[in-house]
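Tutorial sheet, problem 5. The two components below are modelled jointly, 704 residues in total.
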Amino acid sequence: MSEATAPAARGATHTARHAATARHRSLLRPLLLAAVLVVLLLAPLYVEEFWLRTGFAVFGAIVGAIGLNLLVGTTGQLSLAHAFFLAVGAISYVYVSGESGGLGTTTLGGLGWPPLVGMVVGVLLAGLAGLVFSPIAARLRGIYLGVASLGLVFIGQHVLNTWTSVTGGFNGRSAPDFSLFGFTFANDNPLLFIAGVPFREAERLWYLGLVLALAAYLFARNLLRSRPGRALQTLRDSEVAASVMGVDVQRYKGRVFLVSSMYAGLSGVLYALSIGSVAPESFGLEVSIQYLAMIVLGGLGSVGGAAFGALFVSALPLVFQRYADALPLVSSPGQGGLNAGEVARYLYGAAVVLVIMFEPAGLAGLAGRFRRRGRDPGGGRATRSSSASTDPSTSSVPSDRPAQGSTT
Amino acid sequence: MTQFLSLLLNGLSLGALYALIALGFVIIFKASEVVSFTHGSLLLLGAYSIARLSDRIGFLPAVLAGVALTAAAAFVIERVVINRLRGAPVISLAIVTIGIDIILLTELIRRIGSDILNVPHPWGGKSFRIGDVGISQNRLIATAVAGVLIVAFFLAFKYSSWGVAMRASAEDGETAALMGIRLGRVSALAWIVAGALAAVAALFLVGAPTPGVSAAAYTVALRAFPAAILGGLDSTGGALVGGLLIGLAESFAAGYQDQLLFLGRGFGDVVPYVVMIAVLLVRPSGLFGTKELTRV
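Model answer (structure tokens):
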């Protein structure tokens, strides 16, 4: 009797402590998020242009990474075609909103519609491309899809290089400035000063990126907590189990492809705005691989993780470029040393390998581990095992097993 | 007709090389359940080391050293990374090979730079003629070597103890392990063989009519992926058929480029992927791949 009550009592104090920390945390988390948001909102007033431009590129990458993560991390469909969908978004934006005209010997078509329409069309067309590809995708399992989607990137490159009147061909074409109901996201028109700081293109785009990335984040997070989100996660763990539970496997695969490529389309539009032009070579296989690296580093299946991964992978080369003189080993191009892009590639390549080998849940997993350790300081080892059992990629192994074992 | 025959011949020879790469790809998949995206950079490593070493130690020793080096690199990858991840989800394994590929490829491309390294094949850029039909001697020798290697491979796969062990472990890893087959050793050997095959293919792929070793050799290697997928990832015979199909398709698309101009210049480079997607639409597990059935 006393034996039975002792653990129960311990359990009670345990839950009490949990409740206390939970209350503590529930206050801490929004506060932290609010602080980050305030910093991000105020940043353009204090930070120089380089960081704002890098920031905008990162926001674009975050949108794309969240989209890919829905597909690969949440649903378990390995896709290397992300660069292709990015390209569809970027090119559609440039074509729809760009003016037609000549560029050297080639004549470029363009509809000259408002940039907002261009952005929406870019997102929709990318989604459509995803939808068109999804019947193939839904039939293919796992790794076949990975290689088939690889093909899409190369076919896309070919189309970009060939369809000169729309894409500008090999040299690409410039992207029109974004504007929203007469407010241009460019250096002037109208001239704008806030708190004595001139609000030029970089400052304005920063806010655009921030809003879109935030919206992308919230949408994905809510999606994952909703019924379709649960269905997608079941699909990753076991297609058989999912279909037994009433999930229409083919349809959900198609839909997640649609959503993911719409994200990619938006990210492509942001990319075009951030660079100011689009060229076929910006949408090669290495872009797909970069996005894959982002979500692996951040943690497959975690929305916030994808954002951090995107920050790491997309900002790294730019920052290295900027501080090439100050960093050991890194040098400016043409000086014989490693250039910034190479160093960044080594780093994230190595990071991908290390993450998969030692922390399959990525940065999100690491964060979770620290959080749990902070909550329960006594059981370092115990938290370790509990974190291992809850992280998505290892828990998918045992649930995958019966399905694999029963295949013949 | 002459053009047709010559394209056919060239396509077959190219296809034989693709088949070599695809075979390596397939046996890695069979032995360790890994889709190896490192194959492109392994091939580039082979080509690069042959090109660099042949200046110093002569052509033939360089080829042997290059093949050995590539096989060793594949072995190291298997031991250090893949072997430790046994049982991990297929997607994680594929992504880890992509990570390795990023590192290896960055290093190789940094070393190669914008140069085109020349491999001093003793047969040079001469071409061989049968009547009106011409083919570069390099490709002719490539076809012969690839043919010999492929036959040797299939014989080994069928009769040698390694081949039997490998087929057993691909069929049912757990039972094979219980029967005393060392899965780790089987998988390591598969990687070594695949690395060596890739290096041999690299030796010929960078010869005439291609100019030499450049970063572009990587994209050529990637076209062996459709070959493997097309035939079915777990079928060695499929890799052979897939390789030949891809080689032929590419050769014809490049040869009849002028008639295919509406598809754009350089369509030959993407035709492997088009063929792959078309086949996958009809047969999602490739031509000869085992269909995945699920029993509940």
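Marking note: The first strand of chain A starts at residue 99 and ends at 103. Full credit if you identified this.
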